[in-house]
Write a structure and sequence with these properties.
With 432 residues, the protein is of the alpha+beta class. The chain has two domains: 258 residues, BirA Bifunctional Protein, domain 2 (2-Layer Sandwich), CATH 3.30.930.10; 90 residues, Anticodon-binding domain (Rossmann fold). It is built from 17 helices and 16 strands. A hairpin with a 5-residue loop joins strand 3 and strand 4. Helix 1 runs antiparallel to helix 5 and helix 5 runs parallel beside helix 11. It is elongated and about 90 Å long. The two termini are 52 Å apart. The structure holds adenosine monophosphate (AMP).
Length: 432
């Protein structure tokens, strides 16, 4: 019986393979990941790695049971020990848990943590929205001041600047504190109740269970209705409003383009005060490339001290895909600087030891054994090697090799005793 395996939907492949989309090339990911890591280090962040799955209760408690993520999108299963576990749908709850359980709060200073890796949400897949996706995220724990909000938003914008990604002005809003939000939710519910006949069945559910989520509605009719809805900023408590105004002033002085979107709430229930989101015009419906906010009460929910915190998360697939759309430059994957074509047992031995010495010097080098020289040179072309060198017993006897520059076809002779130092010198001159 023929056995067929369903197609892998999230393969990242080496450059030049048939992946369909350029952004699925692993070398592009290395470049972006490297930029993200460097940015995090420049801003004083250290990496935290948390497990791929956690107790389901962590996410229910952290993200909120009525959020779309928890109520509909988690990959939840019961393990052999009858524990309910879930693949992580986002990073903040796990980082907060790790922070508390890892004893990091006992040091009493603020902490900057970043993470990078796969996340899972069972949502309707479409371009830019995947069931397995990757995020780079940063969490700053222990400082309530608006200068931290500014610093984090600046860091996010700096990431796009370093990657040459063009973004729209950062959307920002304030959700106020728990009491002011409650008052707002009360008014919003009243407003929505008066218009129930205009809501979709999903909208009605949201209006009842979690009216804030209604602000995320993508339905054109509901969006129209929202134009007349009460504004979150009008309900902000005095301190949150002051915090927000200081942040806006800092963004203005810091030349960070932003716009106030008084209906921005974002999909996770733990936010308080500042929320922000970054969109691009080049990705169609799924155009958010990053976002975040303050979550001042979250740590206490996990048994930690009541430390204020703020963070962001960036969707890596979307970044790579927008970089492809906008033609942002990405260094190509490394190719062999030199490719040896050994012929004969003695030559094999010689080439293996030369390859080892070159690789120890971080010079990408390769060898190929083919039936004919022309086949070997064809492979050298396919691998985009810079130069090819044939080494056979005759070359070893005569102590000279012939070197072919693959792009120009130019040939030259090099003495065997000088070959290693010659290649090192060439690499230093034009290989890097
Ligand atoms: P969130 O954790 O929902 O605040 O999302 C942060 C960022 O992750 C978004 O701005 C997107 O760039 C990205 N993202 C969220 N969900 C997905 C998904 N299902 N597929 C791809 N990227 C996603």
């Amino acid at each position: 019986m023929k056995f067929s395996i369903p197609r892998g939907t999230f393969d990242l492949l080496p450059e030049g393979m048939k992946s369909g989309q350029k952004w699925r090339e692993s070398s592009r990911w290395h470049f972006v990941e490297e930029q993200m890591r460097q940015l995090a280090f420049d801003y004083g962040y250290q990496e935290v790695r948390t497990p791929i799955f956690e107790y389901t209760s962590l996410f229910v408690r952290g993200i909120g049971e009525h959020s779309d993520i928890v109520s509909k999108e988690m990959y939840t299963f019961v393990d052999k020990g009858s524990r309910s576990l879930s693949l992580r749908p986002e990073g903040t709850a796990s980082v907060m848990r790790a922070f508390v359980q890892g004893g990091m709060q006992s040091r009493g200073v603020f902490r900057k943590l970043f993470y990078m890796g796969p996340f899972f949400r069972y949502d309707r897949p479409q371009s830019g929205r995947y069931r397995q996706f990757h995020q780079f995220g940063a969490e700053m724990i222990g400082d309530p001041l608006p200068i931290r909000d500014f610093e984090l938003i600046e860091m996010l914008c700096e990431l796009y600047r370093r990657l040459n990604v063009k973004i729209s002005p950062v959307k920002i809003n304030s959700l106020g504190n728990a009491q002011s939000r409650e008052a707002y939710v009360h008014h919003l519910r009243d407003y929505l109740s008066a218009h129930l006949d205009q809501l979709t069945p999903e909208g009605r559910k949201r209006a009842q269970n979690n009216p804030l989520r209604f602000l995320d509605s993508k339905d054109p009719k509901e969006r129209e209705l929202l134009k007349g809805a009460p504004s979150l900023l009008d309900f902000c408590d005095h301190e949150s409003r002051l915090h927000f105004d200081i942040l806006c002033g800092l963004l203005e002085k810091g030349n960070i383009p932003f716009c106030i979107d008084s209906q921005l709430v974002r999909g996770l229930d733990y936010y308080s005060r500042t929320v922000f989101e970054v969109d691009t015009e080049d990705l169609g419906a799924q155009n958010a490339v990053g976002g975040g906010g303050r979550y001042d009460g979250l740590l206490a929910k996990f048994g930690g001290s009541d430390l204020p915190s703020i963070g962001f998360a960036v969707g890596m697939e979307r970044i790579l895909s927008v970089m492809e759309c906008q033609g942002c430059e990405i260094p190509p994957a490394p190719v062999p600087f030199v490719l040896f074509i050994p012929k004969g047992e003695q030559a094999d031995q010689y080439v293996l030891s030369l390859l080892y010495r070159l690789r120890c010097q971080h010079i990408p080098s390769e060898m190929v054994a083919a039936k004919t020289l022309s086949k070997a040179l064809q492979i050298a072309n396919q691998l985009r090697a810079r130069m090819a060198i044939v080494i056979g017993d005759r070359e070893l006897e005569e102590r000279r090799v012939c070197l072919k520059e693959m792009h120009s076809g130019a040939k030259s002779e090099v003495g065997i005793s000088d070959l290693f130092s010659f290649l090192i010198q060439r690499w230093e001159e034009d290989g890097l």
